Amino acid sequence: MTEPVEPTSFAARWVEAQQAVGTFIAAAGTGFHDTEDLLQKTAVIALEKYADFDPRRGSFLAWAIGIARNQILHWRRSTGRDRLLFAPEVIDQLAEVQSRQGREFSGPGQAVAWCIEQIRGRARKIIELRYMEGLKPADIAGRTRSTSGSVRVILNRTRKSLRDCVERRLRSEQRGR
Fold this sequence. Notes:
This protein is mainly alpha-helical.
């Protein structure tokens, strides 16, 4: 029989881990709104399964990131190709690094931030409209005076370029260790 969950124990651990888990989810290539949704789902599942958490097997943060990782992979399967998607191996690397580093999400977080900063011009504007403002390609087309087809092409090319950039940076950092 499992012991009853002590809500204050979960709450205290979640408060400490929440920022790092959210950073992990965002670094895995989710948009702002999806990051918030995935973080909430992760919190709900973590609370529901908190009785299964065993501190002798690892930190609460690593456990919560494992739950978030599963949520990201499920989200990936359900969203199709309209998102910036990293290979599962990259998500695993992000989870491992984040679990070890806790709140300081330097490597992957910096790689994502650096690669996003490299996006320029029209592609940058379209990425901002899509992921910061949450607009659909048809709405972006209206704002940028282009077709929704050309917006989709730019989004797909930019996502691929960003994904490749982050993967290169992460591989480069691993070789440097």
